[in-house]
Design a protein that fits this description.
Blueprint (H helix, E strand, L loop, with lengths): L1 H17 L12 E8 L11 E8 L2 E6 L13 E12 L1 E2 L5 H7 L3 E2 L11 H14 L8 E6 L12 H5 L7 E5 L4 E4 L1 H6 L12 E5 L6 E7 L3 H4 L9 H14 L2 E9 L1 H12 L6 E6 L8 H4 L9 E3 L2 E4 L34 H13 L4 E5 L2 H14 L8 E4 L5 H10 L2 E4 L3 H4 L1 H8 L2 H4 L5 H6 L5 E2 L10 H10 L16 H8 L1 H6 L17 E4 L16 E6 L2 E5 L4
Helix pairs in contact: 2-7, 7-8, 10-11, 11-12, 17-18
């Protein structure tokens, strides 16, 4: 292995010395970055970091070469960043997340459990909500919205119900969104606002949970049953544009230069456009409107495929099922422990029927509109695979299976043949690995969640993501989770699905660019590509995988502009 590394170094240095510049050898750059540890990510094969200099003019990389010849690129006005041992990589790319949801989270009650928040039991949740009402002077009748509660981590191991929330307030309607984003809890006033009562029927693709032995709603609503309540989520947000600006800083602090909003409404598209026009967006934002309510005329309605003020509508999102940690994902085999009130053969359920999936996939593939499709359970994965096969796309469609938590070996084989891309919610192994093992799936199935090693073995393009704000957009923790697969309790979950650091880095750079049809502009440090970089305080290829989460983002550069500097330079 060491010999391979030195061969790589020799070949790179020889190449750069022979073609030390592409274009004018004496052209002065706007910026030159010099590092002893540049990770180009220009190859699929494992590579080492190299001592290189990178020149930037405007928003593009114009030259990459050895330190010794960098002086010809440096003029009086050139900004020179001498990084020493710090590592220079292409900017991280958010393969799946929710930029607008992340923005909203900054102004709503944080109900997450450690290490993200402080809620450890129902009493702590109630206290947090009461303090939020008081601190924000929320008048009676106005909505109180909280995000991120997790029934798998609070002491009671259950969802808060209407009685728990009535104890906080009977004068405010309360809306709590589960950490998965697929269930909500509300109080009696919230149920009344949503028109949900004992006479309400479960809608297609959703469940109204009931009090034991009664038809009376208990306040917990699954999937589509939550829609009458979820529409109030943004009511408490006082300054939407400011929330978008705050979200951009959160992403930039984590080294992310391309952000995704992976389930946007028409209102969200409008908000992001307005934020871009106001100059509040300094990263690239790729938006995927929800495409299953009605077929979207994306070309006309959303200026499909064009960046305007750093925002581009890049395709559509289709929802096929729910969440494994919320036990609403559609599985081919029963859950280990079914939710309260469900039979032992409970397997979750689809969001929409197969016929509708076939209709939507065929419609968008014929229009050559990129598709990202949420499919957590392997039965939902079957629905997507069947629909793509049935449509028989004749172009480079790159249909993405978002989350793909429980995708099977046979499904991966078919997906490779069809040109599909799995995008794994690989942070699950840490955040909910214990829950998956002990309550959701059992050890055998839980050990195969996010089967990255199986994907690498097939030489497939794949990506990994945090699904922010479901968990924070911490790319280094994501890399750590993917390479180590260690749970909260310190147990390894699926040692045979671990992958190398380099393969994990591919999933947040080169492969993520390919997923978004931006491989010619992003994902590697090469002449002609966007000047998108992340500077890390250590070389991730030289750090033991178990220490990847200790690496710090030192600087983030988007299109040639510094958008985050930990040192405040």
């Amino acid at each position: 292995m060491k010999n391979d590394i030195w061969i790589d170094r020799f070949l790179w240095c020889a190449a750069f010395l022979s073609i030390s510049s592409l274009g004018n050898a004496t052209a002065e750059a706007d910026m030159v970055l010099i590092s002893d540890n540049v990770i180009l990510m220009s190859s699929e094969r494992p590579a080492s970091s190299l001592p290189l200099a990178v020149a930037v003019e405007g928003d593009r990389i114009t030259w990459v070469g050895p330190h010794e010849v960098a002086a010809s690129r440096i003029g009086q006005e050139t900004k020179v960043l001498r990084l020493g041992q710090k590592a220079l990589l292409p900017g991280f790319i958010d393969a799946h997340g929710h930029a607008s949801y992340t923005a909203a989270a900054s102004q709503l009650a944080n109900l997450a459990s450690p290490p993200v928040g402080l809620v450890t039991d129902i009493a702590a949740l109630q206290k947090t909500l009461a303090q939020y009402i008081l601190q924000n002077s929320i008048p009676p009748g106005d909505w109180v919205v909280g995000l991120g509660y997790d029934d798998s981590l609070i002491a009671e191991k259950r969802h808060p119900n209407r009685d728990d929330l009535d104890a906080v307030s009977t004068e405010h309607p309360i809306l709590l969104i589960h950490v998965s984003g697929h269930l909500v809890a509300t109080n009696s006033k919230g149920l009344a606002r949503g028109g949900i009562n004992a006479e309400s029927l479960d809608p297609p693709g959703g469940i109204i949970r009931r009090r034991p032995g009664s038809k009376e709603p208990d306040g917990v609503l699954e999937e589509s049953a939550a829609y009458p309540i979820r529409r109030y989520m943004n009511d408490p947000i006082k300054d939407p544009l400011a929330s978008v600006r705050e979200a951009m800083m959160i992403y930039a602090k984590n080294g992310i230069t391309t952000v995704q909003d992976g389930a946007a409404s028409a209102e969200v598209v409008g908000l992001l456009r307005a934020a871009g026009q106001a100059g509040l967006i300094n990263l690239d934002v790729l938006v995927y409107p929800v495409g299953q309510v009605s077929e979207l005329n994306v070309e006309q309605s959303y200026e499909f495929g064009k960046y305007r003020d750093r925002v581009r509508v890049n395709g559509v999102k289709i929802m096929l099922d729910g969440s494994p940690q919320g036990k609403t994902a559609f599985m081919s085999e029963p859950y280990l422990e079914p939710p309260a009130g469900q039979a032992s053969d409970y397997r979750g359920y689809p969001a929409i029927p197969q016929a509708r999936v076939d209709e939507l996939i065929s419609f968008y593939l014929k229009k050559e509109v990129p598709i990202i499709a949420h499919a957590n359970g392997d039965a939902a994965a079957d629905m997507l695979i069947n629909a793509v096969q049935e449509a028989g796309p004749a172009y480079d469609h790159r249909t993405v299976m978002i989350h793909a938590q429980t995708v099977r070996e046979d499904q991966l084989t078919i997906m490779k043949r069809l040109g599909m891309i799995p995008s794994y919610f690989a942070a699950h192994s840490f955040y909910w690995g214990d829950w998956h093992r002990d309550s959701v799936f059992g050890l055998k199935r839980a050990s195969r969640i996010s089967p990255t090693a199986s994907t690498v073995a097939r030489k497939m393009v794949f990506t990994i993501h945090n699904d922010a704000p479901i968990v924070p957009p911490d790319v280094l923790r994501l890399l750590w989770a993917t390479t180590n697969r260690v749970t909260r309790s310190g147990k390894i979950l699926g040692i045979d699905q671990r992958i190398s650091t380099y393969d994990a880095l591919l999933a947040v750079t080169r492969h993520a660019a390919y997923q978004h049809y931006e491989e010619n502009q992003k994902g590697s440090i090469e002449v002609g590509k966007n000047a998108d970089f992340v500077v890390l305080d250590r070389d991730p290829l030289s750090v033991a995988p178990e220490n990847l989460d200790a690496i710090k983002v030192d600087m983030t550069i988007s299109r040639g502009s510094v958008v985050f500097d930990r040192q405040g330079r």
